[in-house]
Design brief:
0% strand, elongated, 5 helices, disordered N terminus, mainly alpha
């Protein structure tokens, strides 16, 4: 937007603080979890590559990378959702009328809520099918249940976040100019 125009879409302004103050501790915990997952994945892969070059192997490095990536990616999706940092195309939206902007914002939030709800439902379905198998990785025998549950929790929270945003945008009237 230019000059003194006001964004009526319900979306936060880029300069506006989007994380509520009380969410600071939860955000820090998520950042630590995601960072630890990413660093673990990178370290496992780096040691495995180095080992191949100098003549030793790191058994299970792919398994460590995969479970660490689940944590890092789940947290990344949840944090991007909670702080409204998903990719958006502003070039055309900023040229639309305020009414169309509100409609696009609501439609986008509904689509995101449905997308994450479907991902969560599919993950629950797969998890339920495999629950009795005590599924684990082949080399290191890392149990996969906790990682599936973590992904389900993160995708479910993202779905709820966008559903709440959709409902708020649908029923909260924007001020008139």
């Amino acid at each position: 937007m230019t000059g003194g125009e006001r964004d009526l879409s319900g979306a936060p302004d880029p300069g506006e603080e989007t994380t509520p103050p009380e969410a600071g501790a939860a955000r820090r915990v998520l950042l630590v979890l995601g960072s630890a997952g990413l660093l673990t994945a990178m370290a496992a892969d780096a040691v495995a590559v180095l080992g191949r070059h100098v003549g030793f192997t790191l058994p299970g490095s792919i398994e460590v990378f995969q479970v660490a990536a689940v944590i890092a990616l789940s947290v990344a999706i949840l944090l991007a959702s909670l702080t409204d940092r998903h990719a958006a195309v502003d070039l055309m939206i900023n040229r639309a009328s305020p009414r169309l902007q509100r409609g696009l914002f609501r439609g986008g939030r509904l689509a995101l809520a449905l997308t994450f709800a479907l991902l969560c439902a599919g993950s629950i379905w797969v998890s339920a099918d495999l629950w009795s198998t005590r599924e684990m990785t082949e080399v290191l025998a890392i149990p996969l249940r906790p990682f599936r549950l973590f992904w389900i929790a993160c995708s479910g929270l993202a779905a709820m976040h966008f559903a709440v945003q959709f409902v708020k945008a649908r029923f909260v009237k924007a001020p008139r100019r």
